[in-house]
Amino acid sequence: MPRKPDFIMPTDEEDARINQGITLDEDNPELNERDFLQAVPASALVPDLAFQQRVPAP
Question: pTM for this one?
Answer without folding.
Answer: 0.47
